[in-house]
């Protein structure tokens, strides 16, 4: 379940769903769920370790040695990763790394190249 956005009229965080609408209990403002989903999607930002905004297709560089779970491989500092894809979740970058394959990275361990 995705979190509901705050009320666009008063900013209250206590919004709830009522059928196909979102409702604010503090000011009684009602708006459609589609508008609420657009607001949540618009606020999704992924930033690297230095605060730079990342987008799909960017290239990034790994800033820390990263152990790969389930394998004896290590992603070394300075490894450049091209054509990233942003996803929701704990590991918010999907990518392919040469010599290792497809994997997920956390944005806190990369910098924009």
Automatic annotation (TrEMBL):
Residues 4-32 form the Protein YjdM N-terminal domain. Residues 46-113 form the Protein YjdM C-terminal domain. Transmembrane segments: none annotated. InterPro entries: YjdM, YjdM_C, YjdM_N. It comes from the Bacteria. PANTHER family: PROTEIN YJDM, PROTEIN YJDM-RELATED. NCBIfam families: phnA. Belongs to the YjdM family. This is Alkylphosphonate utilization protein.
């Amino acid at each position: 379940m995705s979190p509901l956005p705050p009320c666009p009229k008063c900013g209250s965080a206590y919004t709830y769903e009522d059928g196909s609408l979102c409702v604010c209990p503090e000011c009684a403002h009602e708006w459609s769920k589609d508008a609420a989903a657009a607001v949540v999607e618009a606020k999704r930002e992924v930033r690297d370790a230095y605060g730079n905004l990342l987008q799909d297709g960017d290239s990034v560089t790994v800033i820390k040695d990263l152990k790969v779970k389930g394998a004896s491989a290590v992603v070394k500092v300075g490894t450049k990763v091209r054509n990233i894809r942003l996803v929701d979740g704990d590991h918010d970058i999907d990518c392919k790394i040469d010599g290792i394959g497809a994997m997920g990275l956390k944005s806190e361990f990369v910098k924009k190249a």
